[in-house]
Amino acid sequence: MLSELRVQHFAIIDDLTLRFAPGLNVFSGETGAGKSIVIEALGFVLGARGDVSLIKDGATKMNVQATFFSNILPDTLRKQYGLAADQFTLRRELDNKGKNKAFIEGRAVTVAALAQIGQALVDFHGQHDHQSLLHASVHLLLLDQFAKHEKLVSQVAKAWQTVQQIQAKLDAVRLSAQEKERLLDMSQYQLDEIERVAPKLGEDGDLEQALPKLKHAGKLLEFAAEAYENLYEAESSATARVGKASRALTAMAELDETLAPLAENVNSALITLEDAASTLGSYKDDLDVDENTLDKMLERHEKIKRLKLKYGPEISDILRTADELRARIDNLKHADEHEQDLLAELALARKELLKLAQDLHEKRLKAADKLAAQITTQIKPLGFNQVRFSVAVDMDEENITSTGADKVEFLFSPNPGQALRPLKNIASGGEISRVMLGLKTVLASTVPVMVFDEVDAGIGGETGWLVGEKLHTCSIGRQVLCVTHLAQVAAQADQNFHVIKQADKNSTHVTITVLTGDKLTAEIARMLGGGDAKSAAYSHAKELLAQAQRKKS
Description:
The chain is an alpha/beta fold and about 550 residues long. About 55% of the residues lie in helices and about 20% in strands.
């Protein structure tokens, strides 16, 4: 679970520390109070995109730290990031120059490392995520996520890529004679341009390091000679004077042993000076002031720079381009010989792709039935008495892509006698939100923390109470964080946070407090329409809280 979250200088938050309870943690407050900012801050520390515009006005950086307690973190991640204990801390900061710093237990890591751990710990559902259910392309991704057959999906993608590469080679060999000659000339010209320069890996870095020294070789030699003479060669050089002092102090130490440390220090200084003089002498002797050498290095640096502009930002990209050009030239020169071989190779590759796509289709069909059954079980208690939910998987062998040959679509019927239709054509906003809640519950079954930012959009009344029940049920044995506007949801929380935005002439900031007792009742009443302790809303709030307590017990 998420034990603690500290947020500093994030958006309109100054410095805020929140401690979370197991179970359902709910954030409520007026519209625009900043409830979702806490969710954004948690996402930031778990690797989500950070923007310098989120740094609070007047601050130079923002910082978010999250402490987790989890005994189900995969052993591979524990070993990779040295997490021996179940409790550990993640931290991330971003300064106003766009520089990120990330830490796990105080050890510097990449932001990607935070994201990797975050994916194993927290599942986020944002305010607009339910809209993604209106797009059939997302349905395929969700089905594959549920089925956990990533290896087969990856094999299909690789096989499809192989088919594309062979087809490209075949298209190349089937070019007209004139087009082949044009491509051959252009490819040979580009390869010759690279091979004339023949850049080597790391050479650009060596040149950039050496050129400043060569450009200033004359002045460096003059200064080095002067420094060397002052250190070593002149009769009054530093080493000569310190040497005399060292010998004198050594003699004095033999007469007064209290001077021994001082004599030793001066002798050490002498050794250091002599080492510096020796190093400076070697540097001076190695300096090359030959103008021809400098001109040649400048010319080579410019040639490599031009190649980088044309063929890639790094020398490795240039060398890779050269290899690709050699392969292309070979294909073009031996086009007729290669065509039959490529046709045979393409047939085998397509056969392999079709087999993998068929295997994937069979697995998706089985997974679709299981996913539909589990989602139906999850959403039935959310106000759908006779709901039907299905996952259609249709295969088109003639149109295989990198994701296979399947078109996947969620079908939905919320009412008896109503035919199954695409979710996007039949479901209302409230129904979509409830389906997403069921889907998230199924897909995040192994994730210890679930975050819902206004999953109750478009819902009210009795359905709101049912959604609150589902959220509380989801939180048993794990932790749920939820931003809500519904009193029916807030009343069922194990811990309630109240978010208030305050502003003065110079700044805006957020305060968040934990509500209990009369203050909690008053907040539930506000969400129901407001009123004092004698109002109907206040009485209703007390009833909701009592009902929730009875359910929990």
